[in-house]
Amino acid sequence: MKRLNYKWVMVALSFLMVGVALGFCSSPGQLYITAITEALEIPRSAYTLTNTFRFVSTAVVNLFFGTLISRFGPKKLITAGFFSLIIANLIYSLASSLPIFYIGGVFLGIGFSWTTTTMVGYVVNVWCRENKGTIMGAVLASNGIFGAVAMQFITYFMYRNNDPFGYRDAYRAVTMILLAVALLIMLFFRNSPNDTDASNISKKKSRGRSWEGIEFGKATKKAYFYLALVCIFLTGMTLHGISGISAPHMKDVGLDPTYVATVLSAHSIALSFFKFLIGFIYDRFGLRVTSAICYVTDALVMLALVFVTDSPSGMVLAMIYGVFSSLALPLETIMLPIFAGDLFGEKSFSKILGIIVSVNTAGYALGSPISNLCYDLTGSYNISLYVGIALIVVITAIMQFVITSANKYRRSIEG
Fold first, then answer.
1. 320: which residues sit within 8 A by CB, 6+ positions away?
2. How many whole angstroms separate alpha carbon 51 and alpha carbon 217?
3. Please, what's the b/e burial string for 335-351 (b: 16 or more CB within 10 A of its CB; e: otherwise)?
């Protein structure tokens, strides 16, 4: 009987880790806003600053990912990540004032740093030498699957006793799930394969494979390193800023809230599929084609959102935005490890991945405030959309230059 390749156990554990961490601790975040602000009688704008603390802590911690992973290894960091998520949920279940929620946001950000995109990128890179994109896309798609289950699970605990503080029971129930999954992952998780020598790193010039890469010191001397970071920062700022205003924009132009909810549901369903699809496309066609598809789609769906109105054609455009904006969002998840691995290779992968995720997350922290500032100044989100479209066009061009420069240097190394 053929022995099971343990990498598939690691892929399954990564799928479970991301699904529970993001699906139960991030995706249902919107469910808590109304329940918490009404129960504690606090302003929504002040409460949502919790996310700012989350993003800042994620950005800061990821800056040191390479150093931490080298010193402690993934298993210890994942354990610490789940411990941080558990602390965050317990804090949320007990908090009665805004500063306590903000502290919970800090722990939540730390937990995500070591259980989601950055860690999955590292684990898949170590265990899977080929078809990295497809595998990473499948793993990160778990967010949508588990998130759909979590929505029902959390809603049940919130409202089962008609208690305005039922959200606290939901947080405690999630804490138990996190604890159980953490124990399961720690039982079967391995830091690295048995065979990790350099011969496993592919020298072939094919897509979806590892390559030797360059040292971190050399990478930081390349102009395209900094251009890539600028693009990734602006991508995070634009994508997160626009996705955060899409629902209120559709309501502002007169669409029925029920239809808007349907659009958002279609978006969630499509997201899981497109994460997998983008990984598959990368493995078949490479970074240039894959990134162009994501960026061009993003510009087009933002343009569609500009022309959404309270009319049959406007409703069609809203649904087009809802479904196909999911094809752009992998730029915030699966594409980050792909950028690190494809542009810079193995030698500096963990350090550069941490920096890339940190820079991208920093963009999140600015995107929503800037988009809403435009609304406060003009009374419409259209300016934000037009600026977002212009930025994506510029980013697309610069990123193509970055890929060309990186490929040229890669060819000089590989011969």
1. 301, 304
2. 33
3. bbbbbbbbbbbbbbbbb
d(CA 133, CA 137): 6
> Which of 314, 327, 332 lies closest to 266 in space, CA to CA?
327
| 65, containing H or E segment | helix 65-94
pTM: 0.83
With a CB cutoff of 8 Å and minimum separation 6, the contacts of 19 are 142, 143, 145, 146
* Interaxial angle between packed helices 166-188 and 29-40, expressed in degrees from 0 to 180 and rounded to the nearest 10: 140
284-342 per-position pLDDT tens digit? 999 999 999 999 999 999 999 999 988 999 899 999 998 999 999 899 888 999 999 99
DSSP for 97-138, written as a single string: SHHHHHHHHHHHHHHHHTTSHHHHHHHHHHH-SS-HHHHHHH
Mark out the alpha helices in 114-222 (DSSP H runs).
117-127, 132-140, 142-159, 166-188, 216-219
CA distance 354 to 366: 19
CB 115 within 8 A of CB 81: yes
CA 137 – CA 279 distance, rounded (Å): 5
Length of the chain: 415
Give burial (CB, 10 Å; 0-12/13-18/19+) of 60.
middle
Please calculate the CA angle 322-338-330 and round it to the nearest 5 degrees: 5
CA 90 to chain centre: 23
Q: Contact 40/168 with Cβ under 8 angstroms?
A: no
What are the structural domains of the chain? 6-200 (1.20.1250.20), 216-414 (1.20.1250.20)
Between 230-239, 268-277, 285-294, the lowest mean confidence (pLDDT) is in 268-277
CA distances in angstroms from 399 to 116, 149, 238, 279, 405, listed in the order given: 25, 36, 15, 18, 10
Two tokens, residue 73: 């290894």
d(CA 277, CA 334): 11
- State whether residue 363 is helix, strand or coil: helix
Q: What share of the chain is helix, strand, coil (3-state, %, to 5)?
A: 80, 0, 20
- Indicate the average pLDDT of the chain: 88
